[in-house]
Structures are given as structure tokens and as C-alpha cells.
Amino acid sequence: MSTALLKKKVVVIGYGFAGSKFTAQALKKHPDWEITVITPFDYQEVPLRMTESIAAGSAVHDKAIYPLLREPGVTYIIDVVETLTDGSLRTVSGVELTFDAAVLAVGQKIPFFYPDPRSESTAEARKASIRALNETIQVAKSIVVAGGGAVGTEVAADIKLRHPSTSVTVVSSQPDILSSMPPAFRTLAARQLTSEIGVTVKFNARVVSHDPKAHSVTLSSGEALPCDVFLAAHPEGGNAGFLPAGAKDTRNYAKVDDTFQVNGLRKVFAFGDGANYDVVKTVPRIDDQLPTVLHNVQLALTTSSTVVSLTHHKKGFMGTVEGPMLVAFGHHHEKGTGVGVSLPGCMGLCCFVCCCFGGPCQTPGGHGAAKMKSDFNDSISPKAGKGMDR
Fold this sequence. Notes:
about 20% strand
């Protein structure tokens, strides 16, 4: 019997941080797997540079977008999964595949921050979209950002610092911004965003309607705000809508437990932003989950019984970090500032004290968190054998 016949067929759906890292690690650890990647895009993009790209334009975005990194020996299909069962799938273009295991790394939907598979499947289309959005921002007099998390506050700061005469408003549904970070950081971040940068924040409010023709948005309080550009900077759900009923939640995140096996599907696993395992979605969480996913996929492939005793994930150090570690207001800008680092234990205490007494993470002038995160973002690119990594 040939080696090819003995190989287990593993399909990876999605090829961002989670999908590319899983693929790279699987190649190293399991050369007996026949891996096929299905991705809607012919390119890869660094999401951490997108708020700056939108504010600064093509000069920055061109450094954040790369040709698709193709690992040797892996089959790549540029397509969108339409349906999936426990052992087979079908794509929108009609490709049908069977598999021994599937790993979903499909991410979540945040408009502008992540590309749209329907209209931005090619690098040229994505570049054109970002360029058009930036051109609109350059001439706008008023911009409203819905969402007080890391994406919303960072894009608001990046735009305001580069376009100081433009009115920029963040609408947060919470009584603060960055609600997943410790209270001291939230207070500091709000002060920096409003007093130092000049962004207006509307707390305990939601955008209930947007009228592009009237150049306005209406808030849940009934207040109307002028709005030439509206940016929805909050997650609109996951990308696992192709899963059968019971395998996804009401917002189209894959339903998993701490084994990362998808509910009701023995051969299918999901992790990263596209799964409902963690409410907080960060890159360190993906790194923390990856070893358990690899291990459990291997167990599922090598156990003939219909019931597999999978390993339950135990969160490591980085898996316990709540919220973003660094929030940068003004990437690569001379007036950039920010807050961080949100870490547990004694490190978290040190950061709390440092934050309260003016430590380096809140230093303006492009230093501290803003510079740290800018440097980190610059160092990220797809690398053979590592996936999307530094």
C-alpha cells in the first residue's frame, strides 16, 4: 500500500493567525497528514495594522498585506465553504471534499477590520477598498465609530491624530471603554483618548440607525449626531454559518467545549476567534489553544472508536490574560500614546502601580504602549513553517 493511501486527510478552513499557525505546526509534527487549506482570500493581512491603514492609507496598508503564504506540500483552495457535515464539505463554487478531520479557524466579522470574502477575495480588491475608505476619511468633517473596544478606540485615535480638524466620536454601549481591561486602565485610556487626543466618547449608548444621505446617525438615547463616515467597530458574529444547526450558536460562532471539538461533530474542531470558547479574542489566546487542538485532532484521527477521550484544555499563562495587552492610540505617530500591559498576578500589579504613577506605557510622544505595539505590528508577517508570526 502506498504512503499516499495511508495519509489522513485534514482540512483547515480559514488561514489567518489561527489557521496558518495550525497548518505550520501540523506539517512539522504530523508529516503523515494530507493537509488542504480552504480560504476565501488569495492574500494574508496583518489585522493589527488595519486601524492605522484606514487612517493613513495605502502607504501603511501595502506593508500589512502579503501574497498568500503557501506551505510546501499543502493544497490550497481559494473558495468559501457553503455546507459541512461530519466528514465532508461543499464550497460555493461546487468543490466537494471528504476528510478525516477538519479544523475551523474562520475568525469573526468586524467590518473594515477584517476583509469581506464576498467583495474582497483578491488583494487588489482589498487594497482598493481600503484606499477608497481612506479617501473618504480624508475629506470627512465628522466620523462616528460604534464600539468602545480596542478596535474602535484605536481607529478613532489613529484618525483623529492624523486629521485633527475632523470631529471623531466613539459610541460605547458600556459606561467606559475597553471594558475587558482593569478599571485603572479604562480610566486612563478614556482620559488619553478624550483629553489628550480630542476624541468625543458617548457612554451607555448605541447607534440604532445610520442615514448616509442625511449624513447622520441616531443613538439609543434619541440624540442625532452628524456623520460623514460611519465605522462599525464591534464584532458582528462569527464566520461559521455553514455549520449545521446545533454546531453553531445564534451569532454563528462554532460551539465548542474545552476540547475544541465542535458540538455534535466528532471529526470537526474549531479554535481562535471563530469559536465560542473565549469571550475575549486575542492572539495570545490562539497560541494558548493551539497545542490542545493539535493533540485532540491527532487523537480523533488515530482512535477508531466513535467515542474519543479528548484532552481538556488547561489555560496557560497567556490564556488567562483578560483583554488586550496593549492598546495604542496613534500607531507610528509623534503624539501617539496608549495603555498596557494587562497581565495577571504580580506582573499585573506592577503594571497597575506603573500606570497609576505615570510609567512608560502611558508616555506620550510615540513611546510606551503606542510605540511597543507599532514595533510589534511591524514585526508580524507570514513566514514559512510558522504561519502568521513574528
